[in-house]
Amino acid sequence: MTYVDGFIVAVPKKNMAQYRKMAKRAGKVWREHGAVSYVECIADDVPMGKVTSFPRSVKQKPDETVIFSWVTYKSRAERNRIVKKVMADPRLQMDNKNLPFDGKRLIYGGFKAFLEI
Q1: Domain over 3-92+106-112 is classified CATH 3.30.110.70
Q2: Which domain of life does this protein belong to (predicted)?
């Protein structure tokens, strides 16, 4: 079954052009190395919850927006192979000082699909 890496991050609105450029490059690299799909979404209907929500999860500030993205793979083994290549790809080498967001507030994880309809 499909394996998915999911990401949630708060991006300052003033950095969205830089983020889009980075995301477009990253998506191209991920796909070239074998990912099935690469999707980036910007918050549209994500209210601040009283206990938990997307904005709360990344400690969203008033001048930020939430980005929700994911990459899909054929399997976890494929994901492990692809991510190793992606992380070594020089087109994605950036230090944390050059990121268009606060990397400490990035939430990510790998998920094994259990239902696909």
Answers
A1: no
A2: Bacteria
- The number of helices, as runs of H, and strands, as runs of E, in the chain is 3, 4
Residue 11 · residue 22 · CB < 8 Å: no
Within 3-72, residue ranges assigned H as helices are 16-32, 54-57
The 8-class DSSP code of residue 101 comes to S
Residue of 44, 57, 55 lying closest to 109 (CA atoms): 57
List, edge to edge, every strand of the sheet that includes 37-42: 37-42, 64-73, 3-12, 107-112
- Delimit the domains of the chain by residue range: 3-92+106-112
Give the C-alpha separation, 116 to 88, whole Å: 31
Tell me the pLDDT tens digit for each residue of 67-115: 999 999 999 999 999 999 999 999 988 766 778 999 999 999 999 999 9
pTM: 0.92
